[in-house]
Amino acid sequence: MKRYIKEVLIFVSVLFLATNSLSLYRSSDIDAKSLDLDGYILADSLSLDRSAPLIVYVWGSWCPVCKTTAPNIEFLAKYLNVITIATKSDGFDRYAFETIDDSDGRIAKELNVSVFPTIIVYDKNGKAFFVDVGYTSTLSIAIKYMLAKVLP
Predict the structure, then answer these.
(1) Which of 5, 91, 98, 146 is deepest in the core (most CB within 10 A)?
(2) Any idea what the CATH number is for the domain that residue 10 is in?
């Protein structure tokens, strides 16, 4: 039994390292610093705590991985500072998180997002702290958010 537990732990560790390495490589093209946090994106109608980190979720309703990640974001949006940017999407109003309609893809293009979903965690000063692409677990996003809160 101990042997199986050890093998599972090794497998999970290798999988964790591989997926995070791939995510880091794929996210290197993202220009997260170009997001204007005080401009047209964060209108006064959005209820955000400007003194806390921010999770920005760039996604599309047409993206199968985004549909899998959306419940994670929806859960986090109840407790953390989250906005989402729906790129060339429809039907995004069914989710319980604040969404900006990027119907022409202009915002995603400005950020140089080509992989969906993309999650950007900004620190409380509006600087990009972490970028992740593809599926990301609730726990992983929450940890990155908390690190952005205490490290900068």
Answers:
(1) 98
(2) 3.40.30.10
